[in-house]
Amino acid sequence: MMKEKSLNKQILHLLMLITISVIITVGTLSIINIYNSKKELINFNQSLVLKQVNTKINELINEIDDVSRYIKRNYGLDDKSSINNLLELKSFISSILVLNKDGTVENFYSKSVQQNVYKGFDYSNKEYYKKLKSTNVYWSNVFLSSVDETPTISYSFKMGNKIGVVLIDLSSLSTFVIKFKNQDGSHMIRVFDRNGIIIMNPDTKALISQRYDASSSEVFTELINKKSPDSHGVFKSNVSGEKQYGSYWQNSRTGWYLIVRNNYNEIMRPIYYIVVVFILLIIFFIALSIYFSFKISKKIFKSFDNLHTITSKIADGHYSLEHKDMYYDEFNKLLNSFSKMQEEIDKREDKLEQSLSSFKALFNSTMESIVLSSGYDIIDLNDVTVEIFGFESKEEAIGRNVLDFVSEDYKELVKERFKKNILEPYEVDFCRKDGTIINGLVQGKFLKLDGKNIRVSALIDISDVKSKDKLLFQQTKMASMGEMIGNIAHQWRQPLNVISTSASSIKLEKEFGILEDKQIDIAMDMIVQNALYLSKTIDDFRNFFRIDKSLEKFEIRDSIDKALKLLQASIKNHNLVIKTDFLDKKFEVEGYPNEFIQVIINLINNSKDAFIANDISPRIIEIRELVNRDSYKLKFSDNAGGIPDSILLKIFDPYFTTKHKSQGTGIGLYMSHQIIVDHMRGEFYVKNINYKVEDKNYKGCCFTIKLPKNISHSYTFEI
User: Fold this and answer.
1) Measured between alpha carbons, how far is 456 from 369 in angstroms, rounded to an integer?
2) pLDDT of residue 661
3) What fold, for 366-461?
């Protein structure tokens, strides 16, 4: 048994939980928002600094490019003072070397008093000489200058068959970089070459002269190697070991890495203070919410207790009670509602009785058979069901299994529909009490009744409709038979003429006494050959008129070939041109092959009649195969004039025809639609098209047969 709980405690706990959750959530979101805002501001400032420093470096690079072009133009002139003047004007240049094609110093210019380089020195082993073999310009990594023995960066370029080398003093760039400082007084910018050798570190300048390699430090392993440029991350300082927060950018010309950083602890310190303040505020508001929760719940449940006392007395039949007004207006309204509840209950009980009587009358007066079942067991049925199945009373069926009244061929289908709760109507053969079979159209649905799943099944007796369908099929067959007899006559005319001519020739030669054995043999062979052709024609037409009894798999293309063979005389006599566009692979479907041949014959005959009626030439009928992942399509297109839009949606209706009554029954396309849609579970539709023949457009129509691939049926149709 479930343990009873106190509503008072649950509401109090829920009220406290909600208020505390809201306070904590709001506080947490506020802290996160402040943290993100602070972080976004730092990210923005760092990105801005990176852009400024990168712009300054690009300006320096552009100036060096200008210097290299100036040296190319003026070197070799008689006046050598121009390059010395250039050295004095450009503060960022410490020395200029000119090497010949073998890497030997041809000339040099330097600001340094102490010079360790002389003409004729071999610099062919220097990086800035070797790299120029594969490129026109080269920015070196940090190296120890042989001119003034200081860490230097060089820019080398080709000057015809000579090489110019500009040794760069980065002090002017350092002056710009040291302007960017953090709140703790440290500098924001670090610069490394492409190999990780430090170029600039205003906070620890000794690392520059030591040519410190930072490629294995966290600034590379945790930031540069893992993050994309202008992304931010946390890494440890390789000097102090403290956490740093920063970003980087790589200059596209020099390959230098520009690092911007802030002390991570300095960033987080003000956030920690804010978090502490928010936590104290959260604790204060939680205490406040607990106090008010107790106070409000006490007033609410005092009203509940009063209400419980009053409703208990009303339940005992004491309706004339005087009560005091409660603290909350809602409880007063609720109490007044109780006094009206008894009256409404009496009225609704009366209406419920009336509704039940109306439902029973409707249940038994409907034209459909209705059966209620729990699982497969019948629990109720209406009077129409009793009449259709020939029962004496409902009791004969109640308690029995639904499948007892289903024909053996359809039991698996009914089980599948029950299992999957499929709502679409479907056809089933049922067994009446006396054993006779009725054709039914069934639709069912599961409903909840008293906590149980109840199947409500509605059945309509369509035996008369099925009989009419069979009659329509027979009428279609008879109409096709008349058409086929005409085709037989066309196909027999020439063989019969040959037989008649051969026999007459023998008789005539005998009368004149000129008959020879050889002539008799030739004539007899001709007669036998044409007689065999007549026999084969009879077999083809007899197979077409054979009634299919069960479903079978057949190749669509074979059915098309058989239909064209049956119609070959008519096709030839009416000057029809049949174009086919078949796929490489032959496709099998499940159905009735002779019915499918009938559909093809109907479509070709309809096109033929339209050509004749509209007096159109040339007469083209195109048969085309298409296939996709789950379906197969067969398209019949012609240039016979198309179908008027006003009747396009009616052509599949029974007995609808545009021909004279002596020429058409109006059931050909209707039965074709039934064969494709109902018997083969496919789709059959038509649209008007423009058909192009020899650069001339004709109106026509296109019938499409769409069949599912790999479909399997577990039932049969009677045809």
Assistant:
1) 10
2) 44
3) Beta-Lactamase (3.30.450)
- Residue 369's contacts (CB-CB under 8 Å, 6 or more residues apart) are 381, 382, 384, 385, 388, 389, 440, 458, 459, 460, 461
Q: Please provide the average confidence, as pLDDT, over all residues in the chain.
A: 78
Q: At what angle do helices 264-315 and 7-74 cross, to 10 degrees?
A: 160
Categorise residue 435: left if φ over 0, alpha if ψ from -120 to 50, beta otherwise: left
**pLDDT, tens only, 567-607:** 887 888 889 999 999 988 888 888 888 888 888 988 998 89
Q: How many CB atoms lie within 10 A of CB 250?
A: 14
CA dihedral for 502, 505, 509, 514, sign (positive or negative): negative
Q: Cis link prior to 618 (omega < 30° from 0)?
A: yes
230: helix, coil or strand?
A: coil
Cβ pair 233, 246 in contact under 8 A: yes
pTM of the model: 0.40
Q: Which of 347, 372, 346 is nearest to 359 (CA)?
A: 372
Say yes or no: domain 547-719 is CATH 3.30.565.10.
Answer: yes
Q: Count each helix (H run) and each strand (E run) in the chain, helices first.
A: 16, 23
Q: What whole-number distance in Å separates Cα of residue 657 and Cα of residue 659?
A: 5
In terms of C-beta distances under 8 Å and separation of at least 24 residues, what long-range contacts does 25-34 make, across chains too? 27/278, 27/279, 27/281, 27/282, 30/278, 31/274, 31/275, 31/278, 34/271, 34/274
Spell 106-130 as b/e; 16+ CB within 10 A means b.
ebbbbbbeeeebeeebebeebebbe
Length of the chain, please? 719
Interatomic CA distance for residues 277 and 273, integer angstroms: 6
pLDDT in tens, 383-427: 878 878 888 888 888 888 888 888 888 888 888 888 877 777 878
CATH 3.30.450.20 domain span(s) along the chain = 46-266, 366-461
Instruction: Say how far apart CA 125 and CA 435 lie, in whole Å.
Output: 110
Cα–Cα nearest to 110, from 142, 76, 147: 147
Query: What's the CA gap between 335 and 346, in Å, rounded?
Result: 19
Parts of the chain belonging to CATH 1.10.287.130: 462-546
Secondary structure letter of residue 92 according to DSSP: T
Is pLDDT larger for residue 447 or for residue 230? Answer: 230
What angle (nearest 5°) sits at the alpha carbon of residue 365, between those of residues 362 and 369? Answer: 100
Which distant-in-sequence residues (6+ apart) come within 8 Å of 680 by Cβ? 589, 590, 591, 592, 596, 707
CA dihedral angle for residue 75, residue 77, residue 81, residue 84, rounded to 10 degrees: 0
Level-2 CATH architecture, domain 462-546: Orthogonal Bundle (1.10)
CA distance 423 to 548: 31
Architecture of domain 46-266: 2-Layer Sandwich (3.30)
Listed in order, strand segments (DSSP E) in 472-617 are: 552-555, 576-581, 588-591
Are the C-beta atoms of 517 and 492 separated by less than 8 Å?
A: no
pLDDT in tens, 356-392: 666 666 666 676 788 888 888 888 888 878 878 888 8
Run of H or E residues at 656: none
Q: Count CB atoms within 10 A of the CB of residue 703.
A: 22
**CB count in 10 Å sphere of residue 719:** 16
- 417: Cα separation from own chain's centroid: 29
Residue ranges matching CATH 3.30.565.10 in the chain: 547-719
